[in-house]
Write a structure and sequence with these properties.
alpha/beta; 12 helices; globular
Length: about 260
């Protein structure tokens, strides 16, 4: 059993993670941080190659034996900016969509919106970012994380862009939780929570500094990153966010049941 100090921690290389993990090496110097895309980080958690991982919330749906560190998540209550469908056509004309193969929760979220919001049934394929590759394979392409930012700058006026966070809010009236610190079954998340809470609080306290660092690393406008950190996403997972998770899981179950039928 890993101690709190020596945890193997899976994290992801997206901008939205920075306020949560930037100060973890300072707070937990003996811990091992392993950075991978969400889909690979989830596989590492399943294989017990990491003890806790910041992964898509869908992992709690797929693995009810998992738990999560309370009070921390990557959430939006409206437009999120980093989970978007880019399209050459309006929704009613879309015949095919390429799904980002790095994504887990967002792919299922899009399938929910296709069914309940737009009421369309396009053909679904997968692709590896950048988004231009997806648009070579299909009428539209889902793009998540930093790749969704790069698809905006420089802006391509020929594309439609649909923000999935905004559409989920319009559909349900609830926030959406994209990811959380999810733990293996043998770990009690309450017993390891303190350093993760401390890292989050310190990250949010230094959000101005992190915005500049993040923008420089990714060659993106610093004011855009600051607005993203402070207006589009937030990191407190409370009761309303848990309602959003339960709503998402109910709708995901309907999607899976209809696929089996």
């Amino acid at each position: 059993m890993s101690t709190v100090e020596s945890l193997r921690i899976g994290t992801i290389p997206f901008a939205n993670v920075m306020p949560l993990d930037f100060f973890l090496p300072e707070i937990m110097p003996e811990a091992e941080l392993i950075c991978e895309v969400p889909s690979k980080s989830a596989k590492m958690l399943a294989k017990a190659q990491v003890d806790v991982a910041l992964v898509s919330i869908i992992e709690l749906f797929n693995h009810p034996e998992y738990s999560y560190i309370p009070g921390i998540g990557i959430c939006s209550d409206g437009p999120v900016e980093s989970v978007c469908l880019f399209s050459q056509k309006e929704p009613q004309d879309i015949q095919s969509i390429a799904l980002d193969n790095n994504s887990l929760a967002s792919n299922t979220l899009l399938r929910i919106l296709l069914r309940e919001y737009w009421q369309i049934s396009p053909k679904l394929v997968t692709y590896t970012p950048p988004v231009c590759r997806g648009l070579e394979k299909a009428d539209a392409a889902l793009c998540i994380g930093d790749n969704a930012f790069y698809a905006r700058f420089p802006k391509d006026e020929s594309r439609y862009r649909y923000d999935l966070g905004a559409l989920w809010k319009e559909l349900t009236g609830l926030p959406f939780v994209y990811a959380a610190w999810i733990t293996r079954p043998e770990l009690n998340p309450n017993l390891i929570a303190d350093p993760f809470v401390e890292a989050k609080e310190k990250g949010l306290k230094h959000v101005n500094q992190l915005s500049l660092v993040c923008a420089q690393q990714r060659n993106l406008p610093a004011d855009f990153i600051y607005r993203y950190f402070t207006q589009n996403i937030y990191y407190d997972l409370g009761e309303k966010e848990r309602q959003g998770i339960h709503c998402y899981f109910d709708k995901a179950k309907e999607i899976l049941n209809s696929a089996i039928a």
